[in-house]
Amino acid sequence: MHDEHKDPDVPTGPGKRHDFDRVIDRSATSSAKWNKYHSDVLPFWVADMDFAAPGFILDAIRERIDHGVLGYTETPPELIDAVLTWLSDSFGWEVSPLWLVWLPGVVPGFNLACRAAGSPGDSVMMSVPVYHPFLPAPGHGGRRSIEVPLILDGNEWVMDFDAMAAAASADTRLFMLCNPHNPTGRSYRLEELEALANFCLRRNMLICADEIHCGLLLDEHLQHLPIAALSKDIEAHTITLMAPTKSYNTPGLSCAFAVIPDARLRRRFIEARAGLLPGIGPLAYLAAQAAYQDESDWLPHLRHYLAGNRDLLEAHIARLPGVSMTHVEATYLAWLDVRALPVASVPQHFESHGIGLSDGNQFRGPGHMRFNFGCPRDTLIHGIARLEAAVSALGA
């Protein structure tokens, strides 16, 4: 299935050209990822890659810094044009500039969506496990949360529409979608998105779609499909959240946008953010503009490198007793099933062997761990060795 990554142990091919193998010391940068643990624990937790941002983004930032003035900044028209062109070229989705609402991140975006949908006391539905900031978002807006577990169908995590139908009520106003899915690494197919769209339209439910990982599909036969682009009906019921920060590894430069075609819903969304969110800084805007204007081969080569990392991790996990993982179609995040390991606290046990992963409990996925493989191959190899040593110590 993955012939293009036959030998993930050897860092050759496209990834080598862009030097994704270079190990960068982040210890003196106040990195949240690297500061969490002592230096004897390798961090593979938060969704923050250990690669340098591409040169064209760094050059744009340097040029702006050389100007010397870093004042309040309006959204550059060049950025708006770049986003509209990218949406059209990538997905065949024709978007009006009036539909865009700029935000300092997708997390504020889906929190605002919860406030814009329905009224206090209404309910919001989501599938779990899911990106953990989803979980408190309905409550932040005075809404109730309905969490419906995904089901494992073979090697794929899928939405359980029967359970969703049973859980929905007359006051369920919003479905929060994460696609590509964090933490399972799924890229939902057309038929799945159509089924979700029909489910929501029949119940007059809105959709808030966090699609921040849409540039990181690792299987070459897959293509991201924005759910809002399926039809005019679903477009009018959807808030789509996107950002370049995951694909280009600039999460510290907070810039994202919402696409909200329906004018009334867009007005409610904008009203919900009043007085709550800061503006976006000039460097974040410029980084986003450089990303959406990118016509280089940097991102395809990053995807190729990440797919090699994924294949390497999958191959080792397949031979590891007591641990399994589903295939990662998108993102750089692997979802490990560790329920068979005979230890009370898997996270603590792993950390005692020098490897720090995200605890699945925070995603509503007990008995699982999330492994971020967005790192140089050598770092990943060291991490896998520590993981294997931790499992071996249990005699699993």
Write the layout of secondary structure elements.
Blueprint: H1 14-17, H2 32-35, E1 42-43, H3 55-67, H4 77-91, E2 100-103, H5 106-116, E3 123-128, H6 137-140, E4 144-149, E5 151-153, E6 156-158, H7 161-167, E7 172-178, H8 190-202, E8 206-210, H9 232-235, E9 238-242, E10 256-259, H10 263-272, H11 282-292, H12 298-318, E11 324-325, E12 333-337, H13 346-352, E13 355-356, E14 358-359, E15 368-372, H14 377-393
Helix pairs in contact: 3-11, 4-11, 5-10
Architecture overview:
- Helix 5 packs across helix 10 (263-272).
- Mean pLDDT is 95; it is low at 1-15.
- Strand 7 (172-178), helix 8 and strand 8 form a beta-alpha-beta unit.
- The protein has two domains: 32-54 and 296-393, Alpha-Beta Complex (Aspartate Aminotransferase, domain 1), CATH 3.90.1150.10; 69-293, Aspartate Aminotransferase, domain 2 (3-Layer(aba) Sandwich), CATH 3.40.640.10.
- It has helices at residues 14-17, 32-35, 55-67, 77-91, 106-116, 137-140, 161-167, 190-202, 232-235, 263-272, 282-292, 298-318, 346-352, 377-393; strands at 42-43, 100-103, 123-128, 144-149, 151-153, 156-158, 172-178, 206-210, 238-242, 256-259, 324-325, 333-337, 355-356, 358-359, 368-372.
- The chain is globular and about 60 Å long.
- It has 14 helices and 15 strands.
- The longest helix is centred in the last third of the chain and has 21 residues, at 298-318.
- With 396 residues, it is of the alpha/beta class.
- Helices cover 36% and strands 15% of the residues.
